[in-house]
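#struct-queue
[09:14] JT: dropping the first one here, sequence first, then the structure tokens:
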Amino acid sequence: MVKNCPVLKEKLATNEKQSSKSFSANEKAVEFYSKGLDELKTEKFAKAIDYFEKAVKEDPEFAFAWDNLGLSYRKINNYDKALESYKKSLEIDPKGTMPLQNIAIVYQYKQEYQNAINAYEKLAEIDKNNPEIYYGIGNIYATKLLDYKKGLENMCKAYLMYIEQKSPFRTDAEKIISNIYAEMKKQGKEEEFNEILKSYNISQTK
């Protein structure tokens, strides 16, 4: 079985694309939010949660505050509260990319893999050129559901996007593709593996 943890490579920056409801015009909410970010940076998650909770109490439509509240809860392994916060953010801004990506990650921690895939697929509807989507889906199929064909197909998509974007994360995709090859070879499916790579114009990764 492939040993890669599907959540080791996360991109959880808070500077996602802004919408009209991403930020807040409420000065007190912004002040609490700013203090929460300071606590988050120093990994004082309980304090960060307190400030973000105050921010969303001041302005319940403050999407970025909900996002970071979710991130803070996830950091202390309170996955249900994290999901609740991310889903609240999506109610405010249905096209928020950060909460959708983080929802997928939280579901992986909860070992609810189909829910994680569903979250990635929703993210693909609004951010189809994000290689992390296909990396995440491919990793789940390959390492958790052991569906190597679907894992390989998605990892090939991620690999090609990483190359196009000149991203160093291409090596992560290469490693998983190599591991999938080893597993499919054990199953006598080496020819199927090669056909899938050929369909994506990818040479076999060693």
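[09:21] JT: and here's the second one, same format:
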Amino acid sequence: MANTWSQLYIHLVFAVKGRQSLIHQGIKETVYKYIAGIIRNHQQKLLIINGMADHIHILMGIKPDKCISDLVREIKSHSGKFINQQGFVRGRFEWQEGFGAFSVSQSQVSRLITYIENQEEHHKKQTFQMEYLAFLKEYEIDFKQEYLFEPIS
């Protein structure tokens, strides 16, 4: 759209189904590169992707005409199929239903990039559940505890 200017940053967080630790070091880089390609193919700007074996963080610039839910559905669907086709995990890989999407101001981008880069160090002190609850509280998002996490299988 002519004369439309925006600078929108979204921090996405989503987990492996059952919070299983399936995105291990041996496949992490390949999976992240694949997800980066999905984001680029949708003409969005990836700033950083990282996470732990049971969840993922993505910080990206997003255009105002892009539906976040549609993009996340594409990322999860295609990356899940890729992981299964490559035989990276025993059994069937799936992402947990749902996701967190948090808007980020320009002034907080570099702080969040550092936070995402340092996931391994961060999670020595805090579980994914604790981290996710902190985000929901920080962004003042109403939620029901019973719907927050699928049971670990």
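[09:30] RK: nice, looked through the second one.
[09:31] RK: The two ends are 47 Å apart (CA to CA).
[09:31] JT: good to know. The chain has five helices and four strands.
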